[in-house]
Amino acid sequence: MRVLRVISLLPIAGALNSRDEAHNAKRIAIIGAGAGGSSAAYHLAQYATEASIPTNITVFERNSYVGGRTTTVNAWDDPNTSVELGGSIFVEVNHIMVEAAKRFNLSAAEHNVATRLQIPDLGIWNGKEFVIITRADEDTWWDKAKLLWRYGTAPLWTNRLMKSAVGKFLSIYDEPIFPWKSLSDVVEQVGLLEVTGVTGEQYLKANGIGEAFAKEIIQASTRVNYASNLPYIHGLETMVCMATNGAMQIKGGNWQIFANMLDSSGATVHLNTTVARISKQEDGTYVTSTSTGHTATYDEVILAAPLQYSDLVIDPAPEHVPDEIPYTKLFVTLFASPFRLDPKAFNLGADKPVPQYVLTTLPDNEEPQDNVGSPGFFSISILDQGINPHSSTPRPEYIYKIFNHERVTPKILTYILGHDVSDDEAEHGDVNGAVSWIYHKVWYSYPKEYPRVTFEEIKLDEGLWYTSGIESFISTMETSALSGKNVARLIRDEWVAKKADGELGGKSEKAEEVFQEEL
């Protein structure tokens, strides 16, 4: 993989000035190096080249890494054992992700843990029993005989419903719909308001999907993907949860897609750099100020992170200010143990192994609320196997991930493993204990996907753009990347129109004056 071009904070002015040799180059600041920001940089560089418009792109990221909510950590601090902490999976209908992985020659990680361990691949647990257990060597999800026997034709009708909704969504990738200036308008145009405007529960019922399949199978999917029960997630996101064909992840971490996008764009990337303020000038440019006081001037600014979490002051307030909306507070726990999940914890016989992926739903007598409910967690999965290099004798262990609504406790770990886990182990791990390594993370992972029929503006003001409004529509790595691509194309189209009118260029001389003053 190519080395990402990263510039430290201190020489910002000098580094940027050296890259602005063409007086008429358009200067773009992108705030956020996650999926949206990386994609915006990547596609804007391509569009600008096609239009013969010189650009200088600068990306600011307050974290020490690229990828945003797509990042990895190393089990046992072993650089050869990376584990996905954030966005883990993309699927074959995620065209931008799939095409980028191919272009950058990134290899898919293996997903044969269940086969290697000779255990079922998936089980759905309702807090009392597994309502369904499937094996990886059986037919595809939609054709599994067990599902058809238990739920009749509901799986087949759900598959058709999913394909219809996803097909409408995919139409926004291409002309004449792409690029779109208003997400609200395009959702109505392609016929998806009837899907986003109701809950998953309402949408499934209106389309004749049986209650048993909805609550036991589809709700398990909305819980693992969005920590939501069916009455608290809109219909489109419910359908997205069922589009699982071709699930994959990149070996070594999905963040590599976005690192390669930034590298390919030629952008200058400033990590560990927080943009604290952007100020619109009389000539229409924007001055960005970092938390350490460095300033620079840009013709366009792309905010590629949720405004409510950016700690950003916009002066003056833009024409459109995104609403502050509730985000899910998701507790993610990664840990390693030499022990498999205890069958007794799941009311299985001692000779019945627990599946690799344990998803949860609610028992029949429990009314869904906007929380995890009686099962006590959203999902537990075995991500991989590895060798604990720090134990007294290096030993093979299983690496787990838990999604929950609260911090995982020693009691929970002791219960699911069937071995005592101390307070210290649950917090820090013990290289020779039942939990040898553990990592806790709280993510504000995605908006609560409540039903809605309007979405945030893409263009907050002249020269000021926003990618995160798409998250209340669909929140995935792919849709963030799509939003970044859409913004890039809108900017390019404006530039082309101004170029035709003879208005493009000239502002970068003002930017150069600012840099020279700082130097």
UniProtKB/TrEMBL annotation:
N-terminal signal peptide? 1-15
Names of required cofactors:
FAD
What positions does the domain Prenylcysteine lyase occupy? 138-499
Q: Which InterPro entries match?
A: FAD/NAD-bd_sf, Prenylcys_lyase, Prenylcysteine_Oxase1
UniProt keywords (A-Z) are: FAD, Flavoprotein, Glycoprotein, Oxidoreductase, Signal
- Provide the GO biological process annotations: prenylated protein catabolic process; prenylcysteine catabolic process
Pfam family membership, one? NAD_binding_8
Write one Gene Ontology MF term: prenylcysteine oxidase activity
Hey, which family's this protein in? Belongs to the prenylcysteine oxidase family.
User: Sorted alphabetically, which PANTHER family does this protein's record hold?
Assistant: FARNESYLCYSTEINE LYASE, PRENYLCYSTEINE LYASE DOMAIN-CONTAINING PROTEIN
What is the protein's given name?
Answer: Prenylcysteine oxidase-like protein 1
